[in-house]
Amino acid sequence: MLKVLLCLFIFPLMAQNVLVTGGAGFIGSHVCKQLHDQGYTPITYDNLECGLESFVKWGPFVKGDLLDKQTLAATIKKYKPVAVMHLAAAISVRESTDNPSKHYWNNVVGTLSLLDAMREAGCDSLIFSSSCAVYGTPEKLPVVETTPYAPQSPYGRTKQMIETILKDYDDAYDIKTVTLRYFNVNGCDQDSGLYEQRSDQFHLVPLAFNAAFGGDQLKIFGADFPTADGTAIRDYIHVKDIASAHIKSLAYLEKNRRSDHFNLGTGHGFSVKGVLDTIEKITGKTVAADVVSRRPGEPSKIIADITKAKHILEWKPEHSSLENILGSYYHALKQNLLENKP
Ligand SMILES: NC(=O)c1ccc[n+]([C@@H]2O[C@H](COP(=O)([O-])OP(=O)(O)OC[C@H]3O[C@@H](n4cnc5c(N)ncnc54)[C@H](O)[C@@H]3O)[C@@H](O)[C@H]2O)c1
């Protein structure tokens, strides 16, 4: 009886809130799902520029922009989150080169606005989504967290600038941040109906599936890299593993009250052609593709050293075989097509 009462009335009242900026986006929505599964209440804050309201399923939604410090501070005061997970950002590398103003305002100034709202509202724990783009083309692989910054795009520079700001805000205002440098995030939680879908798609996996099912031919940017098959090698990580690292980071911050940086990848790389071969095996279809010239600033290979996250966060990737990443995306795609069939 006591157990029933606790479950029905007491535990829900005790659930801790976590504010998730960008919670209506691809990765943010998966983070919200895992927060909910772990007994937290995710509060999504998103302007829906790229996110979908239908992805907000596990807690309250506040529609707002990072640059709106007042609404951010009011949201933090209202929900009193134990931490903020900051995923909201403009993420297209190409767009950042064409329109750096948008990226610097949105990502850098937007993060300043969030940090100042946190100060005003008395929240001092942050988990920040950074990127392997801060490393550019590292000389040594796998890349470790102490590798010097060398971003090669305005997008990567926004992440570097934010990391620098976070260090200063820790020193001056004691805001502690776990910075997670994601490598290439793909896959989806098959049971949740969430998967990467955006109108301005530029990621390899969704574009390749689209090409396999009669959409636009895929462009392979460069087949003359110094790799076994000539195409670029990347470290692909399942979005569920990225989400679980956020839960581990929350526990780390609670226990240690210390800022730190961690790579999130698998430590293994796959070439573009390797990814396309696996998609063809899974779907039984041919990925129509054409080789075009390399994009400037693209490394031939980048792979994470994840020793630090394994030891300190006690995290490891559990869903990130290439077959599982691509298979989960294919499953969600089929489900979605079936559900939306006239
Ligand atoms: N997808 C990857 O492979 C990858 C790799 C490294 C890092 N990251 C980082 O992970 C985070 C999430 O990426 P994603 O792939 O889920 O992208 P996404 O575009 O699906 O999600 C970003 C979300 O942020 C929201 N947003 C953007 N600017 C906002 C603003 N000013 N105010 C409020 N909401 C805003 C968008 O509407 C969207 O819902 C980003 O910070 C990105 O830089 C992603």
Q: How would you explain this protein's 3D organization?
A:
- The longest helix has 22 residues, at 100-121.
- The chain has eleven helices and 13 strands.
- It is globular.
- The chain is an alpha/beta fold and 342 residues long.
- It has helices at 2-14, 26-37, 69-79, 93-98, 100-121, 154-173, 204-212, 239-256, 272-283, 307-313, 322-339, and strands at residues 17-21, 41-46, 61-63, 83-86, 125-131, 176-182, 184-186, 218-221, 233-234, 236-238, 260-264, 270-271, 289-292.
- Helix 6 links the parallel strand 5 and strand 6.
- It has one domain: 3-Layer(aba) Sandwich (Rossmann fold), CATH 3.40.50.
- Helix 3 (69-79) packs parallel to helix 5 and helix 9 (272-283) crosses helix 11.
- The chain has a seven-stranded parallel sheet with strand order 3-2-1-4-5-6-11, sandwiched between helices. A two-stranded parallel ribbon has the order 7-10.
- The structure holds nicotinamide-adenine-dinucleotide.
- Nicotinamide-adenine-dinucleotide binds at residues 22, 24-28, 46-51, 65-66, 87-91, 106, 110, 129, 131, 182, 184-185.
DSSP strand content: 15-25%
State the strand order across the main sheet. Answer: 3-2-1-4-5-6-11
Count of separate DSSP helical elements: 11
Envelope shape = globular
Low-confidence stretches: none
Number of separate structural domains = 1
**What structural class do the secondary elements suggest?**
alpha/beta
Radius of gyration: 20 Å
Beta strand count:
13
CATH homologous superfamily placement: NAD(P)-binding Rossmann-like Domain
CATH class: Alpha Beta
Q: Could you report the average pLDDT, rounded to the nearest whole number? A: 93
Order of helices and strands: HEHEEHEHHEHEEHEEEHEEHEHH
Largest sheet: 7 strands, parallel
Bound molecules: nicotinamide-adenine-dinucleotide
CATH topology (level 3) name: Rossmann fold
Distance between the termini: 48 Å
Question: Helicity level, as a percent range?
Answer: 40-55%
CATH architecture label: 3-Layer(aba) Sandwich
